[in-house]
Write a structure and sequence with these properties.
Elements: E1 7-16, E2 26-32, E3 52-54, H1 56-67, E4 74-78, H2 88-96, E5 100-105, E6 117-120, H3 133-136, E7 137-144, H4 150-159, E8 166-170, H5 175-190, E9 196-198, H6 202-205
Parallel strand pairs: 2-4, 4-5, 5-6, 6-7, 7-8, 8-9
Antiparallel strand pairs: 1-2, 1-3
Helix pairs in contact: 1-2
Length: 209
């Protein structure tokens, strides 16, 4: 019997969604190993390499076990960069169990998957995103790194439909980043940009993973 393909997984855990428009919702997180960008400000550098091998069925089994004590309806596929790996079989199994699927991605890779919510986070220096996300993304999260400026905000606001929110998210809730986010929001408003919002990392306030 042929071996089942496996996925490199850093961790699987229950928590609340701490970022973006789904903030506060109970969620099972599947964090995949590997990243294509490796930003200096990343807060999950431990997921860049290593990880354990699991089949899609084994991952689903772990998710269902966690849901017995934490019956969340959402599963978030995150990283690292989750779309470096072929998640089609896992997504199929999750969908079969009537679970809602969110993918958090840097948007440099696109895979056609039965996903309910693409949360994209373009990264410096190029802030490149695949064109499919123009219609697929539910939100665009911009980490307020020191390199982020109004020019980048303008370019990304123009790139995505006006109904797609562009969120300015502080870098690990650091004070200087919060202050810079407010400055950028004010400049964006003065420049006539619409649907730009301040964000935060709620899980840090609650001391959750």
């Amino acid at each position: 019997m042929p071996l089942q393909p496996t996925l490199k997984v850093a961790e699987i855990f229950p928590s609340i969604q701490g970022e973006g428009l789904r903030q506060g919702e109970p969620t099972i997180f599947i964090r995949f190993s590997g990243c294509s960008l490796r930003c200096s400000f990343c807060d999950t550098k431990y997921a860049w390499k290593g990880g354990q091998d699991f089949t899609a069925a084994q991952i689903l089994e772990k998710v269902e076990k966690l849901r017995k004590d934490f019956p969340a309806d959402w599963v978030c596929l995150t990283g690292g960069e989750p779309l470096l790996q072929d998640l089609s079989e896992l997504a199929r199994l999750l969908r079969k169990e009537k679970l809602k699927i969110q993918v958090e991605t840097n948007a440099t890779i696109y895979r056609k998957l039965p996903v309910d919510w693409y949360s994209i986070s373009p990264k410096p220096e190029k802030y490149f995103t695949r064109p499919e996300y123009r219609s697929e993304a539910k939100e665009v999260k911009l980490v307020v790194a020191k390199s982020l400026n109004l020019r980048v905000v303008k370019r990304l606001r123009k790139k995505f439909p006006l109904l797609t929110p562009l969120l300015l998210q502080p870098q690990s809730n650091k004070k200087w980043s919060i202050a810079l986010g407010l400055v950028l929001l004010t400049k964006a408003l003065q420049a006539g940009l619409k649907n730009i919002r301040l964000s935060s990392q709620l899980h840090r306030f609650y001391d959750l993973p």
